[in-house]
Specification:
about 525 residues, alpha+beta, Phosphorylase Kinase, domain 1, Transferase(Phosphotransferase), domain 1, 3 domains, 5-stranded antiparallel beta sheet, 3-stranded antiparallel beta sheet, 20 helices, about 40% helix
């Protein structure tokens, strides 16, 4: 049995099937006319049930404004009418045009379903497509944040030592949890850190992240793509495939670059290309030692470092005048050229810079993610494979649909009620600069309105002649003239908003009688 929940009530298929026994009874009596009438009425109600169900998920969210646009798609702020909370809905249009982009979406939502932590953004819902075969857009509902750390740094030149300390602590606390799950973010930068005015931060954008349990072992680790991470925040080992095995230290370097940007108000290593990036890094940190260079497995990278002119390290106190020594001491550790010299997130949280801020031992960690959750991440996927995998991931937010799918009912060609089409219309309207269009939908009947509804329906059982002049179609009335905010479905409003002939009224009369019998 499929159970579809609306905001304050639930409907199940039993109500859609109430006429089926009467059909069988009519067949047994040989009343073919009654069979046809009962079958038509039952089919009509089932169709109406699905029409209502399709709009419930989309109408759950009231879009407010566009808060972000990019190559990935559009993000709108919205109100979740079910919880009353504000959320962010990301629409990824034509998500499967490129298998690599679709895989990033799959990886992100899969990781975020497993990673539940106050310093990591949460996926609240993903709108359910009608079937796993031919959907192209994806709507992901996140908890909403006011801005990102890039904008905070850009707009605020009066941040204090307390701000720096609290920001860095949250980042490392999130990394401790993430790394304990054997997940590397691999693309840490200010734009991928959401922020609120109360100084709360959350890590986001896990499209390039990787679960260690799904990564190849041994020398193949070197093929973890050098382009990972935006260049300015990219660890040296990612600039030239320096080491055969990448570690969580790549995220620690990213946090160090972000901390430095907080302290000075602008990026620390703004290289225009990989070579320039390495030159800027070594201008500050000095030329790597022979021992560090010997660890480099890539021959070209090793030769590049060996041929680099000898440069001494610049004291961080000269680069960051006025910054307290404890902060600079931790920054120096985070920005060690050799990943083996960088602290883990746990070790960084224990640094004297955070003395008295919190008890590190009480900060949450978790077990490594299950390998089977990411077995697909070791191979190249086709668009069709990604689509099916993403559909299965979406089903994790829709338990009833998941049960149906796993029982093979979905694979028979059945389309599950979906609100994606209506949500697309809402997004398009908002992107054009207009308000969210309100679509009139029929509501399921709350029990407390049963008596008034039966009285209303009784008026129409006498046929079209039972309607008074004031009840007929009013000039200029239209479906949009109906009150979209009414909590109950009013048949009189429908009559006033439609042009009805005798046949239309006869159909309404029959439906009213059937609903009265059903009630």
């Amino acid at each position: 049995m499929i159970l579809i929940r609306s905001i304050d009530r639930s409907i199940d298929f039993e109500r859609a099937r109430v006429m089926e026994p009467s059909v069988e009874d009519a067949r047994a009596r040989g009343e073919t006319g009654a069979v046809a009438s009962a079958t038509t009425s039952s089919s009509s109600r089932v169709a109406d049930f699905f029409a209502r169900a399709e709009t419930q998920e989309a109408s759950r969210y009231q879009l407010e404004e566009v808060i972000g646009k990019g190559s990935y798609g559009v993000v709108c702020a919205a109100i979740d009418r079910q919880t009353g909370k504000r959320v962010a809905i990301k629409k990824v249009k034509n998500a499967f045009d490129h298998a690599s982009d679709a895989t990033r979406i799959l990886r992100e939502v899969t990781l975020l379903r497993h990673l539940k932590h106050p310093d990591i953004v949460e996926v609240l819902n993903i709108l359910l497509p009608p079937n796993p075969r031919d959907f192209n857009d994806v709507f992901i509902v996140f908890e909403v944040m006011e801005t990102d750390l890039h904008q905070v740094i850009k707009a605020n030149d009066d941040l204090t030592d307390e701000h720096y300390q609290f920001f860095l602590y949250q980042l490392l606390r999130g990394l401790k949890y993430m790394h304990s799950a054997k997940v590397f973010h691999r693309d840490l930068k200010p734009k991928n850190i959401l922020a609120n005015s109360d100084c709360k931060l959350k890590l986001c954008d896990f499209g390039l992240a990787r679960a260690m349990s799904s990564a190849p072992s041994g020398p193949q680790m070197i093929f973890w793509t050098d382009y990972v991470a935006t260049r300015w925040y990219r660890a040296p080992e990612l600039c030239g495939s320096f080491f055969t095995k990448y570690t969580p230290a790549i995220d620690i370097w990213g946090v160090g670059c972000i901390f430095a940007e907080l302290l000075r108000g602008k990026p620390l290593f703004p290289g225009k290309n990989v070579v320039k990036q390495l030159e800027i890094i070594t201008d500050l940190l000095g030329t790597p030692t022979p021992l560090q260079i010997a660890k480099v497995r890539n021959e070209k990278a090793r030769r590049f470092l060996q041929n680099m002119r000898i440069k001494p390290a610049v004291p961080l106190s000269e680069k960051f005048p006025g910054v307290e020594p404890k902060a600079l001491s931790l920054l120096g550790r985070l920005l060690s050229f050799d990943p083996d010299d960088r602290p883990t997130a746990v070790e960084a949280l224990s640094d004297p810079y955070f003395e008295g801020l919190a008890d590190v031992a009480r900060e949450p960690a978790r077990r490594p993610l299950p390998k089977e959750a990411f077995e697909w991440d070791n191979r190249k996927l086709s668009r069709e494979e990604v689509r099916e995998l993403l559909y299965k991931e979406i089903l994790e937010y829709h338990p009833q649909a998941k049960a149906e799918y796993e029982n093979a009912e979905q694979r028979s060609g059945f389309d599950y009620p979906s609100g994606m089409e209506e949500m697309s219309r809402k997004f398009e309207s908002l992107e054009r600069g207009g308000p969210e269009r309100v679509f009139q939908t029929s509501k399921s009947l709350p029990k407390h309105a049963l008596n008034s509804y039966r009285e209303e329906a009784q008026r129409f059982t006498g046929g079209i002649n039972a309607l008074g002049r004031s009840d007929s179609c009013k000039p200029g009335a239209s479906p949009t003239a109906m009150a979209a905010d009414d909590d109950e479905f009013d048949l009189a409003n429908v009559v006033q908003a439609m042009s009805l002939d005798a046949k239309d009224m006869e159909d309404i009369t029959n439906d009213a009688k059937a609903l009265l019998d059903e009630a």
